[in-house]
């Protein structure tokens, strides 16, 4: 079992080991949905929610799998749970806010293949967190993801006004910016102890 | 996504050729540089050449087998639950690969960490299952998977090579530079991955633009 304090776990997940900028998880939505600030915020919210729910489910499943001694089913059961959670969120958003549903478009079902969520489930199992620690870890990771997404969207909105050479337009310039952001986030190293 | 789908239909319209299924993944539709798919492992495990190679081969293995199985079952899988089925098939093979690597080399397993399990959520594999394997015969799907997998491995090696040469002054663990070489630590750090991939995309954009230039005036004349 792990004895990290909740605050340390939160800091580590959100800033020091930011899922996007330090672990490279969830790069696809990071590059795909970060063009507009409003969409980025909502996407972050959706990812946060899916993370929290799947974190609780993953904790329960892991307990069950240990009890029946079948660790090789871990990956398969995690991905099934995540896929169903995403389906649920999709139905909820479609009902609650059709405008948001259209804005997120293909990226909503693609949360299923967002490595950040499966990564979170795997990391929390590896680290042996208890339920409360899992929840804080999921919250930290979700907020870290949202933070990175919002920062990126803010920069890309400014970029529209700048003159970017044709060759670097698109993904290339976005990756360069991500690199600089990642450098900046390295400044947080040492805040929490891993 | 749309451009990729277009090319797939173009290929189908021109008549299926098995070499083309294999070749297109290597260069013209390279999954990383052209389609920009499967970015997470591309950035995360390419801090050295050998990690990149191991990851590339593991992904190729999963890609070929899942393409084959999806293609073989394509008439049995109901349309509504196909994505879930594909993911289950992929997850099964990834579990196999995970245990396989553990058996072959514990060091590699430790270096790649959770990223072996994360092959499940590599959009490249699901993308190929959906866009190619679910519509084509087993043989063509295997060739397609092999081509895409090798193209992916090639891209990983491009990144891993550059990052290891600059970041630790070696390639596949062999020192390349004299002892006085000051390694660029930043290249092994996460930000180095973003910079290197950005630069490779830049190179590819330049190549594409150069190929397009001589063609466009001819198209304009008739």
Detailed description of the structure:
The complex is a heterodimer of chains A (194) and B (222). By secondary structure, chain A is mainly alpha-helical. Chain A has one domain (6-188). Helix content of chain A is 70%, strand content 0%. Chain A is built from eight helices and no strands. In chain A, helix 3 packs across helix 6 (115-127). The two termini of chain A are 14 Å apart. Chain B has 222 residues and is an all-alpha fold. Chain B has one domain. Chain B has helices at 2-13, 18-26, 39-44, 49-72, 82-104, 106-112, 123-133, 138-168, 190-220; strands at 170-171, 174-175. A two-stranded antiparallel sheet of chain B has the order 1-2. In chain B, a hairpin with a 2-residue loop joins strand 1 (170-171) and strand 2. The longest helix of chain B has 31 residues, at 138-168. The model of chain B is unreliable at 1-15 and 216-222 (pLDDT under 50). The chains are: A mainly alpha (194), B mainly alpha (222). Chains A and B meet through helix 2, helix 4, helix 6 and helix 8 of A and helix 3, helix 5 and helix 9 of B.
Beta content of chain A comes to under 5%
What amount of the residues of chain B lies in strands? under 5%
Number of helices of chain A: 8
Low-pLDDT windows of residues of chain B = 1-15, 216-222
The structural class of chain B is mainly alpha
Number of DSSP strand runs of chain A: 0
Helix percent band of chain B: 55-70%
